[in-house]
Amino acid sequence: MSQLSERPAQAVVGVATPHESAALHVTGRALYTDDLYARTKDLLHAWPVQGVHAHATITALRVEPAYDVPGVVRVLTAADVPGINDSGVKHDEPLFPDEVRYFGQAVCWVLGETAEAARRGAAAVEVDYDVLPSLISVHEAIEADSFQGAQPTLERGDLEEGLAASTHVFSGGFDFAGQEHCYIETQAALATIEDNDQIFIQSSTQHPTETQEIVAHVLGVSSSQVTVQCLRMGGGFGGKEMQPHGYAAVAALGATLTGRPVRVRLTRNQDLTMTGKRHGFVSSWRVGFDDEGLVQFLEATLTSDGGWSLDLSEPVLGRALCHIDNAYWIPNIKVVGRISKTNKTSQTAFRGFGGPQGMLVFEDILGRCAPLMGRKPHELRRLNFYANGQTTPYGQPITEIERLEQAWDQVWTSADIEARQAQIEEFNQSHPDTKRALAITPVKFGISFNLTAFNQAGALVHVYKDGSVLVNHGGTEMGQGLHTKMLAVAATALGVPLAKVRLAPTRTDKVPNTSATAASTGADLNGGAVKAACEQIRDRLAHVASRLLHVPDADIRCADGVVSGLGTDATVTWEELVNTAYFARTQLFAAGYYRTEGLHWNSQIFQGSPFKYFAHGAAAVEVEVDGFTGAYQTLRVDIVHDAGDSLSPLIDRGQIEGGFVQGSGWLTLEDLRWDESDGPQRGRLATQSFSTYKMPSFSEMPPEFNVHLLERAHNEGGVYGSKAVGEPPLMLAFATREALRQACAAFGPVGMGVELDSPATPEAVFWALRAARTGHSAEDLVEGAPGVHPPDADADAPERLPESEVAVRELSQA
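Below the sequence we write its predicted structure tokens.
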């Protein structure tokens, strides 16, 4: 057992404790960034002037009328920027643009004594445009050869050999949509100028260090002159990894120019229209199976919708390619990735970070092809699982596939799937207009940042003379329970009660050079750093305790605040030990550092071992579909997920449940729509409120929702044996979509391959089941139907394969 993973007998980690801010949340006493403005004197409010075209050159910007509005103090434009007029890490995101590249982009910002004065001032600003051609859909971008960033290729084996070994070859395509983050707290920042022109920014950000760096280069100052603090976020999901930087820079610039605090807080409409979403993808593919049903080759092209700038599109695409295999051995594979450049918001990180998109492509392939080969989907999936000793397409060895097999088998048994499938078949025979189906899908998700350098973290731990403990670390809290876990890690490492430990807000002047709280690495990285800092203090205190108890340093033990020694009944309290240590001039604070070992990655050739380990899980979902309307219900969900030795079982259960629901929302309900007409509203987001953008609610929750953590799942590579649990559960929701597909197929003849749009809205489900009833592909039926937008066949797009119902070609053995 490694030192990192070894867990003491009386550990605080592993105990089901509530979220550290739960009481504050439910009583309304939890402070968020925008709660601070009411406490801030002489505050100014910022309001954006938003562009009204998808693509246009700004030919004139007249800000003078804004100053005629009572309460307007300043209008911020590009001329005011003392440093670099850019808020992106790729230097392709001008903070104050001279060319609008998506509908709703901020052209300039108005500062007012009140939010209403700023809003009225923004409405008074006059902007002239020269409208330019725009690209809204990915298919339009493909036709125009509009791409940005790298175009990586993931490749292994020989496609021709795979083709020769295949007796069943299928080709097709699949388009699927992005997703809005829908965090409760919109983007917010509050900037103040402190002594000696130091800039202090309160920001709702997952990446305080990068926010600090962007603000510094916009203002033309060093990072040491800028401090960023994140109290907590009301949700993030990746939407606050890159997107907050520009809003913090606007606030900081306004504060610098006026000498007064400046608040930026987007309204919900502004947040929806100005910020990036999960990347939608267009895929085309060709796949082959042998007579046993084993995958022999996969050839695919994945084109993501990057929007107007790169943002995080390159690493998102990279992770999509690295996860297209999910849990399956594909001996011969070639996948090409591209990022389209469209005139939409710059799409960004979202829980799973490309992994869900890559996995979805191959899960869709298996779901569509299984019945065409006369196989049940769950059998085809299980047949193609990895075996230990095999490697991923990018060369990382598979070492823990038995965990996935255990999770799959436990779901199969505990959910009583075999008996329920028989019941479902009986139900479907007696209900011609209502069908049920049950699907089971696996998840294998890599944990670590693909970019090796990001896999590091720091922490600063203070022990005060009264024995109380204060922990600073580089991770941010967005409701996921990271701080709760870090409190437990510190209490366990020091051997004190949980009540003794308090967490400070995340600040760049306490822990510098932090990585984003993202990629499910928050607990792994920051937990390792907190543990390292606490162990330094513990070792120093052990030396003091050894003199008090007359035993060697190595024989000192501390649990629940009581310090003892092996071979003696004598004890001292934690408080007594700390007080003695202080008077013995012992250092009672420490900086901890952690770096993930064993990682290597070559992004040029897409080879290496970028992940510390894989998280595994399996989900079974039963649905019922109405044949008249396409409306459906989720009747039951059963999940077994591998969280290692959980740091906080209660928190992890919540993450699994929430991730599954969020994934189901992406796959079945949340339908982003942009105006693709040639009218004046072209490029405008049509779903720009929660009245038009449908999220999961209590009404979509299954009556029976069973979640179990995989038992005996100690992880040698994790803090106290744990595994990350933030992102992987989202992909358990593939079972929901596959169950809907199988329910649609039940309306038609046996062996029918069903195409199902994503999101699989009731409308999409209706067209799919209607196609199954008539024996035609859903696409053939949907095309041209009023109010419905089927996938564009896009036959002229480069490298695009046919997108009719899966084209089947039976090949004889070579």
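The CA atoms of residues 62 and 713 lie 63 Å apart.
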